[in-house]
Write a structure and sequence with these properties.
The complex is a heterotrimer of chains A (415), B (586) and C (237).
Chain A: H1 6-12, H2 25-30, H3 35-43, H4 46-50, E1 63-66, E2 69-72, H5 89-98, H6 113-116, H7 121-132, E3 145-146, H8 155-163, H9 177-187, H10 193-196, E4 214-216, E5 219-221, H11 237-246, H12 257-264, H13 271-281, H14 301-304, H15 306-315, H16 317-320, H17 338-341, H18 346-354, E6 356-357, E7 369-370, H19 379-391, H20 402-411
Antiparallel strand pairs in A: 1-2, 2-3, 4-5, 6-7
Chain B: E1 2-3, E2 7-12, H1 16-26, E3 32-35, H2 49-52, H3 55-60, E4 73-76, E5 84-85, H4 114-117, H5 119-127, H6 145-159, E6 167-168, E7 171-172, H7 196-207, E8 213-214, E9 224-225, E10 231-232, H8 254-257, H9 259-262, E11 268-272, E12 275-281, E13 288-294, E14 300-310, H10 314-324, E15 341-344, E16 347-354, E17 370-372, E18 391-394, H11 402-405, H12 417-426, E19 430-437, E20 446-454, E21 460-465, H13 470-489, E22 494-498, E23 515-517, E24 541-543, H14 558-576
Parallel strand pairs in B: 1-14, 2-3, 2-14, 3-11, 4-21, 14-24
Antiparallel strand pairs in B: 4-5, 6-7, 8-17, 9-10, 12-13, 13-14, 15-23, 16-19, 16-22, 17-18, 18-19, 20-21
Helix pairs in contact in B: 1-14, 6-14, 7-13
Chain C: H1 2-10, E1 11-13, H2 52-65, H3 80-89, H4 119-138, H5 147-158, H6 169-185, H7 197-202
Helix pairs in contact in C: 2-4, 2-5, 3-6, 4-6, 5-6
The chains are: A mainly alpha (415), B alpha/beta (586), C mainly alpha (237).
Chain lengths: 415, 586, 237
């Protein structure tokens, strides 16, 4: 049990007062042994799944919720027994590319090997080399908590037949070198599609709808395609870079699941790579129009949604302003922004109910947080205010009803 | 007793001074530990907008303030009187918890004037030594405005102060305070929006020949990114600055200006609910080795440190020195000794005005208002007035909380239908203008330990022996007359002056500006700490805060507390760490 | 909830001694919107502190301190007695944050409150004495008197003219009047100021969060309706 509670103990015990919060910037840097591998581990945000809040870095055992149950992440420190210290490079490559563990068993695709298969051999081995420099941590094994049929590991091979498109990244001759670098980062180590691409009923990526946005863990990972209102169509490359580097570009803020991605991964990536990602994302065409079954007739939102207007004025204007204008670079505006206008209002509802924190980065350390209103507003009131902001100030998006709010309230309830 | 591993720097208290010191000293790589008697407080949690704008909870029931059942002071007017404990808060509201009183302050962010730092020598120079009453023990600070200016400037840019400079590098600027000391830079943000009362006051003040300007406000007039890279919002004039935490990141506090970067540092930590009860010296009595503190469960801990910085509220700094036996306690009979000497406060008065216009006084900010500084410090000739000191005159529009701040005409009935009518007719059309005067130091105004009453930790209470003196009453009455002239020129329906009481009372709220008791100076016979706030007797102990003010100026103290903290931090960084020992030879 | 974790790490609450072994994960604060609960005791149901006799006196007294009249309803209609009842049932009534250790001595006015009684105890001890004084003088309990007699009694209290034994009548009057104003003008979630009777009387709109666009509209009435921390209903969440 060495290590598991070290962080907590460092805080709680008499002896030590310096608390190396897992994943905090200086500590991660101090492990620098292999710069390339370390960097790729940041790009891949491996710590997001393989480091728990209180645990030793990369010792795994973090519960990863999936639609089929909970998968516990693996210990990827070089511990011989419980980590991957005994693995050969070939076994490591096979796991990363085909989702097969050293013992031959199938890994669940919560581990994003369908994306890591795009990573070059050279980069994969750099990651391995870096992981080998970590302090080995002996951990306990834990059973996953999956519902049938996903509890049958062998079935994963069938899943792979359907959804795993193996093979390293191949540059697109139509794209520039920079755009191809971005495509590699997005499709490979960055595994953006793991969250942002819609999933089939079996949890497989629907590659024909790549980056069209996807609901998970009661959030909606936004559309990254060229859609003007709900995608990145209205963002400049500079806007995208700014967002990934700092957590905000003045009108969109990284919150929800993206908070951690920005804090642990993109804010620490090289400027040239962020520019490459932006260049590639801007090549994506607008996807299928999934947004807005709203009424086309221009009715003032305050008249159309009087209850929503009332709730808005009483609760939201302190930060977001009377006209949803927000406060530049501090509080997000709500007029014409992707999160608000997303075809899927899950993130907006979630934020109203439970609050939302922006990412804290070197550039924007404050971590401004919106308080939740679950304690105060009924499902009807939340739906009303969501519908109001989605249709006020020139916004135009589909409406939600109280039952959608009730579902998210239930799913996100702490009790 | 739980004994802890030693830290490089131990900070006692984690408010304004401590967070500045921690931010600056962690930059050198030192491991810094802050011990805070209260709890953690975060903008996004404890000050979240749905709950924070609650007058009863915060302003009336004092949720963010010191809790007298744990520790309080006892009070008497003079040495002949029996001191009795302050059983609930009244005259002042020290903070507790992370951020200290800088969480619930208004944001009235002042620099003291050059004159203030050299008060004694300038008074003697201008008016002769005989002008200073025999029992008045005012001193020069040992540091000058010019020396502190870079730190005032830095603190301005940490807090995002909104205002209009009146003196930029010696050039007088239109619209600012023409009397202020020279600033090296303009304010980081323009002044707040001007409300109706401010415009009325401004016009009237000009009419009577004064020089009004917008009050310097640690309430942001625009979104701001501060000197540490921390983002702040913009004030929405919600009217709940004073005595409340700010829910939208627009009032400067450690939470909104420092902690987002400080808390990320691996070489910083804070223990909350850690009430420091003693500083332990080594056998020579010249080196501080550790502090004792009591946790939530009543368990006692010992925390060693190489450098110990007492950075709690002013009265607590003095209390801790006294209970730890550090420095010679002041003896009012002989006038010898230093710890507890030169306790001072603030001398305030007001004029209620009842206007014809609807003022919408509930819209406001903690430091929104116009100021007249013509009668402060050395800004006018004292010769014909016969007193030392002065103060500013203000039309603060802080939000006029209904329970505590409604003003009704003094001849209206105190309750019943008459009161009700007066409340209805005057809440929107009545307000109170303020004078904010200095408080000189006197031989018989001091702090020591109470012989009869003890706090929850078993230490004797701090005993405050204090009353107003003739000089300060004269000064305040002079200010009240100046303010009354402005009030009259506003042509209100009615106005009524509330001069300062002849005797200090601990009951009605006045200001949380208790100063002195561990004052700074150039002579160990008359000061506890040297000009760098380093304890003369114990060089690895610094005592930072308004406890260092030799007497109190006519301004709110926090701007100077911040500047002194940064000045001390710089002395520690640039000099003490290179050669730990006395920075000034006695 | 990495945001909370990090701050929690920094603000470590030391739990007793050096618990080096067997230390479980610290309990993290719940990050959901549900944990933003109100101030302690705000939702305490009324009717817990006052006896029937006390209720009658307090109702009658606050009804005279802030009466219903041609300007509209007063403290009684605003629920001020219920407010005071809840306050006295809670930490304020118990003087939980006050310094309540002896020795006890009378002091000067300027030294402030020096009685050994909490607000709840003050009410409990003083109310029957006031009623006794009323019976003695007018032949009935305070609540049974005519309005003018009640006003005379309150004035006598205010001026220290009623003998309440060890209790200073002026202290009791000050507390009653302070609590009555609190109940009339505090947020309705505390039980008083129902239907915003107090705030509407004076023109306070309640906790609105943003006046940036109104503060320069000199002299104009603020247009939005009154609201409370719990909403425009005042008491309903």
């Amino acid at each position: 049990m060495r290590g598991r509670y070290i962080v907590a103990l460092a805080v709680l015990t008499a002896g030590a007062f310096i608390c190396p919060a897992a994943g905090s910037r200086p500590r991660l840097d101090s492990w620098a042994q292999n710069a390339r591998g370390r960097y790729l581990v940041i790009v891949g945000d491996c710590a997001a799944c393989h480091t728990t809040e209180w645990g030793e870095p990369f010792a795994g055992d973090k519960p990863v919720p999936t639609p089929f149950g909970t998968v516990y992440s693996a210990n990827i420190t070089p511990d011989e027994e419980t980590g991957i210290g005994a693995w050969t490079d070939a076994e490591f490559l096979r796991a990363m590319r085909h989702g097969i563990s050293a013992d031959g068993s199938r890994l669940y695709p919560a581990f994003p090997y369908p994306w890591f298969t795009r990573v070059t051999r050279e980069d994969l081995l750099a990651i391995r080399a870096y992981l080998d420099t970590l302090e080995p941590v002996h951990s306990v094994e834990r059973e996953n908590e999956l519902a049938w049929p996903m509890s049958w590991r062998f079935l994963v091979s069938g899943w792979n037949l359907l959804y795993l498109d193996s093979g390293a990244f191949e540059p697109d001759p139509e794209l520039t070198a920079e755009q191809n670098r971005g495509a590699y980062l997005v499709q490979g180590p960055g595994h953006c599609g793991a969250c942002h691409t819609p999933k089939s009923w079996m949890g497989g990526p629907q590659r024909d709808q790549a980056y069209a946005g996807n609901a998970l863990q009661n959030w909606f990972a936004a559309k990254l395609d060229g859609d003007e209102t709900s995608g990145l169509g209205a963002w400049s490359e500079q806007d995208i870079v700014e967002y990934l580097r700092t957590g905000s570009n003045g009108f969109a803020f990284a919150g929800g699941l993206m908070q951690e991605v920005v804090e642990k991964s993109t804010s620490r990536m090289r400027q040239s790579d962020l520019e490459a990602i932006a260049a590639y994302l801007k090549t994506l065409p607008p996807g299928e129009d999934t947004g807005g079954d709203g009424d086309d007739t221009a009715v003032a939102a305050a008249e159309q949604f009087p209850e929503g207007h009332r709730v808005y004025v009483d609760n939201c204007i302190g930060c977001h302003g009377y006209e949803g204008e927000g406060l530049p670079d501090v509080f997000p505006p709500l007029d014409g922004r992707a999160t608000v206008l997303s075809p899927n209002a899950t993130s907006l509802i979630h934020a109203v109910l439970r609050g939302i924190s922006e990412a804290s980065t070197e550039a924007r350390p404050t971590r401004i947080r919106m308080p939740g209103f679950a304690w105060k507003l009924s499902d009807e009131q939340v739906a009303a205010v969501v519908n109001y902001v989605r249709n006020a100030w020139g916004n135009h998006a589909s409406t939600v009803d109280a039952s959608a709010v009730a579902e998210i309230r239930e799913a996100t309830s702490a009790g | 007793m739980v004994k802890h591993r030693s830290a490089d720097v131990v900070l006692v208290g984690f408010g304004q001074s401590a967070s500045l010191l921690a931010q600056e000293l962690t930059e050198t790589g030192l491991e810094v530990l802050a011990l805070e008697r209260g709890g953690p407080r975060r903008t996004s949690e404890e000050f979240a907008i749905p709950w924070v704008q609650d007058e009863l909870r915060f302003a009336i029931r004092n949720e963010l303030f010191e809790q007298p059942h744990r520790t309080t002071v006892s009070f008497r007017h003079n040495a002949r009187q029996r001191s009795l404990p302050m059983r609930h808060l009244g005259s002042f509201n020290p903070g507790t918890g992370v951020g200290g009183a800088a969480v619930h302050w208004n944001g009235q962010h002042w620099r003291f004037l050059p004159h203030d730092f050299e008060l004694r020598s300038r008074t003697v120079e201008q008016y002769g030594a005989g002008f200073i009453p025999d029992d008045m023990t005012i001193q020069d600070w040992g540091v000058t405005y010019a020396e502190l200016e870079p730190w005032y400037d830095k603190f301005d840019y940490i807090c995002g102060v909104s205002g209009q400079a009146g003196n930029l590098r010696g050039e007088i600027q239109a619209g600012g305070n023409p009397f202020e000391g020279p600033r090296s830079r303009p304010y980081p943000l323009p002044p707040l929006k001007r409300d109706l009362l401010s415009t009325m006051f401004d016009r009237a003040a000009i009419e009577v020949g004064d020089h009004p300007f917008p009050g310097p406000a640690s309430n942001t007039s625009k979104p701001y990114k501060n000197a540490y890279g921390v983002q702040m919002g913009a004030c929405t004039y919600c009217g709940f600055c004073e005595w409340h935490g700010c829910g939208n990141y627009s009032k400067a506090s450690p939470q909104t200006t420092i902690l987002p970067v400080l808390l990320e540092k691996p070489n910083f930590a804070c223990r909350t609910h850690a009430a420091v009860t003693r500083i332990n010296l080594d056998s020579t009595g010249t080196r501080a080795v550790s502090v004792n503190y009591v946790d939530m469960q009543g368990e006692e801990h010992e925390q060693p440190g190489d450098l110990i910085i007492v950075s709690a509220y002013a009265t607590h700094n003095v209390h801790l020195l006294l209970v730890s036996g550090i420095g010679r306690p002041y003896d009012p009979r002989s006038g010898k000794g230093v710890v507890g000497r030169n306790y001072a406060y603030q001398t305030v008065s007001s004029v209620d005005v009842f206007t014809h216009e609807n003022l919408n006084p509930f819209m406001g900010a903690g430091a929104l208002g116009q100021i007249v500084d013509d009668y402060n410090s050395g800004n006018f000739d004292h010769g014909r007035h016969g007193f030392i000191g002065g103060g500013y005159i203000a039309s603060w529009t802080t939000g006029q909380r209904p329970i505590g701040q409604m003003v009704i005409p003094h001849d209206a009935p105190g309750w019943g239908s008459g009161w009700k009518r007066a409340a209805k007719e005057n809440y929107l059309r009545g307000t109170s203008l303020a004078t904010h005067g200095s408080s000189m130091a006197y031989r018989d105004a001091y702090l020591d330990l109470d012989p009869a009453y003890r706090d929850v930790y078993g230490n004797p209470l701090l005993r405050v022996t204090f009353d107003f003196h003739e000089n300060d009453l004269k000064m305040s009455d002079f200010l009240t007359r100046q303010l009354t002239a402005i009030a009259r020129a506003m042509k209100p329906r009615a106005y009524h002056a509330n001069p300062v009481a002849r005797h200090y009372s601990i009951v009605p709220y006045q200001t949380t500006h208790n100063t002195g008791g561990a004052i700074m100076g150039n002579d160990p016979e008359t000061s506890v700490v040297n000009r760098y706030l380093q304890c003369w007797d114990v060089p690895n102990l610094f005592v930072v805060g308004a406890s260092a003010f030799p007497q109190n100026a006519g301004y709110n103290p926090n701007g100077t507390v911040g500047a002194l903290s940064l000045w001390a931090a710089d002395a520690i960084r640039s000099r003490y760490l290179k050669s730990p020992g006395p920075l000034v030879q006695a | 909830m990495p945001n909370n974790r990090r701050e929690f790490l920094k603000y470590s609450l030391l739990a007793g001694g050096a618990a080096l072994s067997g230390c479980a994960r610290p309990t993290l604060p719940d990050d959901s919107g549900d944990r933003l609960v109100g101030p302690p005791g705000y939702d305490v149901p009324a009717g817990h502190f006052f006896t029937a006799a006390e209720r009658e006196l307090v109702d009658a007294a606050v009804g005279r301190l802030i009466p219903a009249d041609e300007l509209g309803p007063g403290a009684l209609e605003a629920g001020v007695r219920e407010f005071i009842d809840r306050q006295l049932s809670g930490p304020y009534g118990r003087a939980e944050r006050w310094y309540m250790s002896g020795p006890w001595h009378d002091g000067s006015e300027e030294q402030g409150y020096q009685m050994r009684y909490s607000p709840a105890e003050l009410y409990r001890h003083c109310i029957p004495r006031v009623d006794a004084w009323c019976r003695d003088r007018y032949g009935g309990n305070f609540a049974e008197l005519r309005a003018a007699q009640q006003d005379e009694t309150l004035s006598a209290l205010e001026n220290g003219a009623i003998d309440l034994g060890v209790f200073d009548p002026r202290d009791f009057f000050r507390m009653l009047w302070q609590n009555a104003r609190e109940g009339f003008l505090a947020d309705p979630m505390y039980g008083g100021n129902q239907q915003f009777i107090g705030w509407k009387l004076i023109g306070f709109p309640g906790p609105r969060y943003n006046y940036a666009r109104y503060i320069t509209q000199y002299g104009k009435p603020y247009p939005l309706p009154t609201t409370g921390l719990l909403g425009r209903g005042g008491t309903s969440v």
